[in-house]
Amino acid sequence: MPVITLPDGSTRQFDAAVTGATVAEAIGPGLARAALAMEVDGRLMDLSAEIGADASLRFITRRDPEALEMIRHDCAHVLAEAVQELFPGTQVTIGPPIEHGFYYDFHRNEPFTPEDFPAIEAKMREIIARGDRFVRRVVSRAEAVDLFVRKGERFKVELIRDLPGDQVISLYSQGDWVDLCRGPHMRTTADIGAAFKLTKVAGAYWRGKPENPVLSRIYGTAWRDQKELDAHLTMLEEAEKRDHRRLGQAMDLFHFQPEAPGAVFWHPRGWKLFSTLTDYMRRRQEDAGYQEINTPDIMDRALWEKSGHWDKFRDAMYLTEAKEERVFALKPMNCPGGIQVFKQGLRSYRELPLKFGEFGKVHRFEPSGALHGLMRVRGFTQDDAHVFCTEAQIEEESVKVIDLCLSIYRDFGFEDVRIKFSDRPEKRVGSDEIWDRSEAALKGALRAAGIHDYSVNKGEGAFYGPKLEFVLRDAIGRDWQCGTLQVDFNMPGALGASYIGEDGQRHVPVMLHRALFGSLERFTGILIEHTAGRLPFWLAPVQVVVATIVDDALPAARQAVAALRRAGLRVETDFRNEKINRKVPDHIEARVPVLAILGRREAEEGRVVLRRLPGREQQELPLAVAVAQLAADAMPPDLSTTPVAAE
RNA sequence: GCCGGCGUAGCACAGCGGUAGUGCAAUCGAUUCGUAAUCGAUAGGUCGCGAGUUCGAUUCUCGCCGCCGGCACCA
């Protein structure tokens, strides 16, 4: 006699076990039409599942977030059926829903290409139009293995064999097509609708392991309706427009070339942006009690052996060659250098915590396939720092780092920051006892900083200690890892660092490694994409372009340029023999934030027209007023009394 | 590193077994024109690099390099 409790608190009683579909019908024909699946006591299930005992029940309709995931999952099944119909001999593997869509990995000698998409999509529409019911069947392990062995689906057989012993094994069929699947699914393929699109193909390793066979993955996107699909496609276009590689070229910030893969050639404007960022960071760190140092780029192999890098990091290290016996390596990290500075002279506990900052340029031999514009390079500059302290100071110093980091991100308009905690990796130095203490200390710091909402990445720590990672979410919802904070009980001792404690004895300091922007290169790329190239005024490489309407205004325009430059603004000119109608769009395109325009009238009156691009509004002001206003706007957020919010 | 795609003028792209074209930019000239692209002329390419096939290769084949999308790896 199941009693079903609905979300509004009402109940329905049934004489015998009932399916969700029956319950929906009992409630009303509208719901019966709209219900796609159900949640029974918090578990998502097929509508056709039977409820035999008292339960609370919620129906899933197209509007619920769960429906979107099911549309995508069902769509993956339909994709697989379509592919197997069109390309006999193709083996299926897995096809999960993912953010914005789904994929399915196939095994086939000949990989798929986007040219195959129209035929596959047409077949998918056909299957959806058929509206086959999704039918669930629970089978024994032997039965499942037998079925897929007969079908020649060796990947599915492997999956079944690896399922835990107590796992219920279910098959889902739509028409004649069967897949191993946990479910749940919607009622029929017709519930998927028409708002889907295959987007790309890619190779992917079976089960993500490079030693396994390469599968051909087809990605698709699927939505509730055409409007949502269109919005998503528009978002993709928007992301493409913001691509920092494209904007970097358009804005003349930097370039790459084949002789130096993964290494940036910074142009004057890009370097101005870069150095504006480092200037800002220098001020913030000085305020926070850091002292800046600089250490060698190339050091003897022996040092890297002692630090542990030679053992744990050599694959990513560049070695040098010279007419000398000794082997030198380009630094992949700044920490060993920082420790050498700490080691000079006898340190006292009274000096701790000692904070050394270094804008160190490190080189890492990244896999070629990982390179991606400024986001992933082989040579990059870290806003690195090493805090030498006692074990008792770890928590307080870590809290300071976290606070500084979040405060800095706010200055750039990043309010949405996630934190990840990564614990001991397999490849590591130091005893388990030391790792226990390091991890506990870092967790304590999180607690002390009032941060309870963080995710844990198992085994992702640095080889010398656990780490926190700070992840920014940009204007169009993408996540970027930037800052990091690592607690290190190992390296200072390995490199012989010590201080004299209160007791007159030598002690090994603990070291906090931290970077806030992380990689300056990457952070610059993130800023470009976050702002779509319209950088906040204080960061814009070219802040003002002075443009003339007629040549008669040239002398006044030159005076305006001089006055703006005297006020510390980055100014360029557009004295071309072009109409103002032409100059305006050119500078909008170049992402110049302010256009200062002088015609004959302004020249005569000592005034200037400011136009903040890409807007259409103009203000006409006396030159001195305009200069003062712009100079105030150009103040970096840490120096400005009224903080300038980033876009 | 792996799978697939791509590489033609400064940029965006077209083209094709008979040694290259369009638009924008550039240069020169005319125009001095008040807020989203003035007109005309000129110049610009060892078609990524190297081999091979061919009477002939930018075009076909192979190798290498780089880039793009994923995978794997990561700041």
Give structural attributes.
647 residues, alpha+beta, Ubiquitin-like (UB roll), Threonyl-tRNA Synthetase, Chain A, domain 2, BirA Bifunctional Protein, domain 2, 8-stranded mixed beta sheet, 35 strands, 35% helix, RNA-binding
Account of the protein in words:
Helix 13 (394-411) crosses helix 14. Helix 17 links the parallel strand 31 and strand 32. Strands 18-22-23-30-27-26-24-25 form an eight-stranded mixed beta sheet. A five-stranded mixed beta sheet has the order 2-1-7-4-5, covered by helices on one side. It is an alpha+beta fold and 647 residues long. The protein folds into four domains: 3-60, Beta-grasp domain (Ubiquitin-like (UB roll), Roll); 65-241, Threonyl-tRNA Synthetase, Chain A, domain 2 (2-Layer Sandwich), CATH 3.30.980.10; 254-530, Bira Bifunctional Protein, Domain 2 (BirA Bifunctional Protein, domain 2, 2-Layer Sandwich); 544-633, Anticodon-binding domain (Rossmann fold), CATH 3.40.50.800. The protein is globular, with a radius of gyration of 31 Å. The longest helix is centred in the first third of the chain and has 22 residues, at 65-86. It has 20 helices and 35 strands. It binds one RNA strand of 75 nucleotides through strand 14, strand 15, helix 8, strand 27 and strand 30.
